[in-house]
Specification:
The protein is of the alpha/beta class and 337 residues long. The chain has two domains: 2-155 and 317-335, Glycogen Phosphorylase B (Rossmann fold, 3-Layer(aba) Sandwich); 160-315, Glycogen Phosphorylase B (Rossmann fold), CATH 3.40.50.2000. It has eleven helices and 13 strands. The strands form two sheets. Strands 3-2-1-4-5-6-7 form a seven-stranded parallel beta sheet, with helices on both faces. It has a six-stranded parallel beta sheet with strand order 10-9-8-11-12-13, with helices on both faces. The longest helix is centred in the C-terminal third of the chain and has 18 residues, at 318-335. The two termini are 15 Å apart. The mean pLDDT is 96.
Length: 337
């Protein structure tokens, strides 16, 4: 079985810092290679993989303002599609654009839908609904207008995250600095509970950061920058809890699963997939407000960090994800779709 994995090119695969879609594409690729599958990764030229690597874009466009994203997206996607006949199946992790090639090739295409940026992109998915296959990353992130072959949760390499039963005493916000992610609400939770807060992540909305985050930074509330994989294990594992007060229907939330791999409980607003990732009052708390989150902070000692780790390993491991994808590949190839 020859599989082509198409990754985005906004960031390196795997990303040096931020880049959740690239991270998942990497986890899929490396997991398949470990299972002995013949995999070719289409990503930026500086990507790191044990698979075969094919690239036309030397550097991620998010790192180079001189690169026109649409131009290099077109070159990148067409680079794979022009040699699609060499593969048994294309695994698309690049949103809706590659679907527009699917009627021009005979190779089956599986698209993992990593969330919907807007309802405006649905017409493309609907057009190719019957001729290609879709995987959702959570049951919560499904459109009623589409058919899905399966839900497969994002899988994480167990060895990348260390269980820590002796955490520090700080709360952690880990994610994009953006209103959707609730950075300001995390600050409010820390203030209400007199806890230290560490904020880590890409500043995606400069105005929001300058108005809702920066004025509140002090000795107890610290922004430590856009933390990469090398520091992620430590900063997640040493936190007493991860705060995830999201304001949108979160499709999955890699940092939520990664925290639980370290044994760190998660306090999240009950939005999107959070009810699928977190066992309320067992691996964290599902809440609806800053006030409820503050109460949950007081109840953190009731969470068993070993059970939190166990839940993550059983449900969100890379191995489980890869086994599910191989099953889906075989199902698609048997159907000839």
């Amino acid at each position: 079985m020859k599989i082509a994995v198409l990754a985005p090119i906004a960031w390196r695969t795997p990303p040096e810092n931020y880049g959740p879609w690239e991270q998942v594409a990497s986890n899929i690729t490396e997991g398949l290679v470990e299972k002995g599958v013949d995999v070719t990764l289409f990503a930026t030229a500086n990507s790191i993989t044990k698979a075969k690597l094919k690239a036309v874009c030397e550097q991620p466009y998010a790192n180079n303002p001189e690169i026109d994203p649409k131009v290099w997206e077109s070159l990148h996607i067409s680079h794979l599609m022009e040699q699609a006949h060499q593969f048994d199946l294309i695994h698309n992790n690049y949103d809706f654009l590659p679907l527009t090639y699917s009627g021009l090739i005979t190779t089956p295409m599986l698209t993992t839908i990593h969330g919907f940026s807007s309802p405006a992109i649905l017409p493309v998915y609907k057009k190719y609904n019957k001729s290609t296959s879709y995987v959702s990353i959570s049951d919560s992130d499904r459109s009623s207008e589409l058919d899905y072959i399966r839900t497969i949760y994002n899988g994480i390499c167990v060895d990348d995250f260390t269980f820590n039963d002796q955490p520090g005493d700080y709360l952690l916000f880990f994610g994009r600095i953006h209103p959707d992610k609730g950075t300001h609400e995390a600050i409010q939770i820390a203030q209400k509970t007199n806890k230290q807060l560490v904020i880590a992540g890409l500043i995606q909305d400069e105005t929001y950061y300058n108005e809702k985050v920066k004025p509140y930074l002090n000795e107890n509330i610290r922004y430590v920058g856009n933390v990469g994989p090398g520091q992620r294990n430590s900063i997640l594992g040493n936190a007493v809890a991860l705060l995830h007060p999201v304001h949108f229907e979160e499709p999955f939330g890699l940092s939520v699963a990664e925290a639980m791999f370290c044994g760190t409980p998660v306090i999240a607003f009950k939005k999107g997939s959070m009810k699928e990732l977190i066992l309320d009052r067992k691996t964290g708390f599902l809440v609806h407000s800053v006030e409820q989150a503050g109460e949950a902070v007081q109840n953190i000692p009731s969470i068993d960090r070993k059970e939190t780790r166990k839940h993550a390993v059983e449900n969100f491991s890379r191995e489980k994800m890869i086994d599910a994808y191989i099953d889906v590949y075989e199902e698609i190839l048997r159907a000839g779709r």
